[in-house]
Amino acid sequence: MSADSILVHDIVPRSEIYGPGPRWVIWVQGCSLGCEGCWNKDTWAKKSGSIVEVSELLREIRETDGIEGITILGGEPLQQAVPVLSLITGTKSLGLTVMLYTGFEPSEFDETMRDCYEASDIAITGRFVQAERDLGLLWRGSSNQVIESPSGRYSNLLFEEAQEIEIHIDHDTGAVTVLGYPDENLLHELEDIVGPLRGRGE
Amino acid sequence: MSSVTRTARIVMTDRECLEEALDSSSCTGWIRQGRDLIVDAAGESIRLTDANSNRRWSYSYHKSLTTQMKGFDTWFKGLQKLYEGVIEEKEARIRAEEKRQAELSKEMDKLRGESEQAKVQLDGESENRLKEIELELEKSKYSLDEAKRRLDSVEKSRISYVRKTEDEIKERGVKGGWKLARDVHDSSRRVSMIRLERRKVSN
């Protein structure tokens, strides 16, 4: 894979539960951190997903109306730090903000990872720790994970903790996408209504 | 991190298209039984139902599938692709008929135009061709109307599914202690977005 491409697990062009305002959201594919109880185990493998050029992703972002920024999740975005940095800087040059999720602690960053972090407007750092799992947290899965604003853009952001789920229903196909931090009961109810959900982090 | 999960890419909501997909599938047989369909495939005899009466055709799915049921599940995913193909074939048929009608109309106009310009009656050959075109146009119109009627029916079943699904998700979410925080239709993307939230509930 080239330094200009990202191995992508999924993209949702517009969501309102991954950071401030409406955001274009990307899950990168590939993670070797192996957090116990991870929500997204099917984003671990480096042999699946789609390779997409950063320029193509930036084109999609530019063409998405009414978004405040983008959010990058995974997988582990900083294990593809070089192209992710291009995505971050390219997005910022469009006047949009960037929210970055990483399972790494800042003390573990190499130089490029640090550049990604520092260029981000919001960063959620730290492993998902099963023992500290808390579904009531905003934007995080476990209470050890930290919200920061490395660029300072959102340093005065006020938020209230909440568990959030977003459900998208495509009118042209009937396909349903479930985002966020659902609990087992809700997933069970949703599967009863819409059928099996692929990519459940069991 | 947080999860992103998706259902099948296309939901089977139209019974006639489903039956066409079954006919072209590798199932060893299928029959109608009341409102349901009994399908023999991948070594299983399975009842397909209009799940929850919300127009989504499926079978009783269990997460802990036996090896044999996994075979059926794989077959069922193939059926969903065939269903998608049936819809695409109908859309292609409409495009082809519209193109054919345009070509026939153009040829008819040309024949009539030539006759008018020359201020003569069409010769026998042209007269026959004109009659053929009129007949073909009539058949094509019927075929196009039929294909459009079928696609309209598919569209109606899908809209009905989307509406019922939205209502049911909201109803069950609220019953489960969630607050309906947002309920919007994004007309540019043709997507409904429902946001449920709960304030600070620790697990």
Descriptive notes:
The complex is a heterodimer of chains A (202) and B (203). By secondary structure, chain A is of the alpha/beta class. Chain A has a single domain (5-159), classed as Alpha-Beta Barrel (TIM Barrel), CATH 3.20.20.70. Helices cover 21% and strands 26% of the residues of chain A. Chain A contains 4 helices and 9 strands, in the order E-E-E-H-E-H-E-H-E-E-E-E-H. In chain A, strands 3-1-2-4-5-6-7 form a 7-stranded mixed beta sheet. Chain A has a two-stranded antiparallel ribbon with strand order 8-9. In chain A, a hairpin with a 5-residue loop joins strand 8 (163-170) and strand 9. Chain A is globular, with a radius of gyration of 16 Å. Chain A starts with a strand and ends in an 8-residue tail after the last helix. The mean pLDDT of chain A is 93. Chain B has 203 residues and is α+β, with helices and mostly antiparallel strands. Chain B has one domain (15-197). Chain B is 56% helix and 21% strand. Chain B contains 3 helices and 7 strands, in the order βαββββααββ. Chain B has helices spanning 15-23, 67-118, 124-175; strands at 3-6, 29-33, 36-41, 44-51, 56-58, 179-186, 191-198. In chain B, the strands form 2 sheets. A 4-stranded antiparallel beta sheet of chain B has the order 2-3-4-5. A two-stranded antiparallel ribbon of chain B has the order 6-7. In chain B, strand 3 (36-41) and strand 4 (44-51) form a beta hairpin. The radius of gyration of chain B is 25 Å and the shape is elongated.
